[in-house]
Specification:
293 residues; Rossmann fold; UDP-galactose 4-epimerase, domain 1; seven-stranded parallel β-sheet; 13 strands; globular
Length: 293
């Protein structure tokens, strides 16, 4: 069985991807600050900002492919900590791509819909990137750096993701569920539009891209463009949670260090043509209900 190196396996997306990829790969997953156990996964503690440590890991494992998921992914944290963000999101990413190029193995990097400014949705892969926060800037810089050192790399721009939490990391909906479960009020943006998918669906898209793409950028958004407020109402309805506690607000109502684009919905037709087929959000929640409440 071929060896797959997955960075950031302790994170939300990494954990979800591990569950699927271990069916067809011998998976080696990296973590740094959050130790965990995942049945069927070989876990490796490593600092991705340490090039020599990563090079040593490559030489020991001799992977047949790499999926790079690890990131500093909180926009507000990145805005306040630019040096850490650049080191993790840009420098370590380019170093991984260089090693993959040396080994001549497939390299897939997960970027973000936040590389766009949010004024001309839905965004295709060929549209000009123009991020408005530092996290988006660093992801866009990483994209350019990867393609410069290893043009055969695969870049998957990911949407907002939700679903089953890992033992160490949750998706953005877990606090929503907790808030509604205890009967507290939940205020959500009605002027921030995204094209969300579950972690499971996103993982299916990533593995499909690894199989079918080389030297390409691919969008892996869902088929519905929806605001966080509309999403929260649908989530509550499908999971049997109270909807009367959910209210709408505007981004301007909540001052944040990192500005947020209004609408970064992704046009994922290119991925659909490859066989990527995300379910409706209603179907996603139906499938996830037994895990979430």
């Amino acid at each position: 069985m071929k060896k797959l190196l997955v960075t950031g396996v302790s994170g939300f997306l990494g954990w979800n991807l591990a569950q699927l990829s271990k069916k067809n790969w011998q998976v080696y997953g990296t973590y740094f600050s959050h130790a965990l156990e995942i049945t069927g996964i070989n876990l490796c503690k490593v600092d991705l900002t340490d090039f020599l440590a990563i090079e040593k890991l490559f030489l020991e494992i001799k992977p047949d492919a790499v999926i790079h998921l690890a990131a500093q992914s909180q926009p507000n944290f990145c805005q306040k900590n630019p040096e850490i963000s650049h080191q993790v999101n840009v420098a370590s990413t380019i170093n991984l791509a260089k090693l993959a190029a040396e080994f001549q193995i497939p390299f897939l990097f997960t970027s973000t819909d936040l590389v766009f400014e949010g004024t001309k949705p839905p965004y295709q892969e060929s549209d000009r990137v123009c991020p408005i926060n530092l996290y988006g800037e660093h992801k866009a810089e990483a994209e350019r750096g990867i393609l410069n050192v290893y043009p055969a790399s695969i870049i998957c721009r990911m949407p907002l993701m939700f679903g089953i939490p890992s033992p160490c990391s949750q998706s953005f909906i877990q606090p929503f569920i907790q808030t509604l479960t205890v009967g507290k009020s939940l205020s959500l943006f009605e002027d921030e539009m995204r094209s969300p998918v579950s972690g499971k669906t996103a993982s299916e898209g990533i593995l499909l891209a690894l199989e079918k793409c080389r030297g390409e950028i691919l969008h892996l958004g869902g088929k519905q463009s929806i605001s966080r407020y509309q999403f929260g109402l649908l989530m509550a309805e499908k999971l049997g949670l109270p909807t009367d506690k959910i209210s709408a607000c505007l981004q301007a109502d909540v001052p944040m260090p990192a500005p947020r684009p209004r609408d970064v919905s992704l046009n994922s037709a290119k991925a659909y043509d490859l066989g990527y087929n995300p379910p409706s959000l209603g179907e996603e929640f139906k499938d996830l209900k037994r895990y979430l409440v």
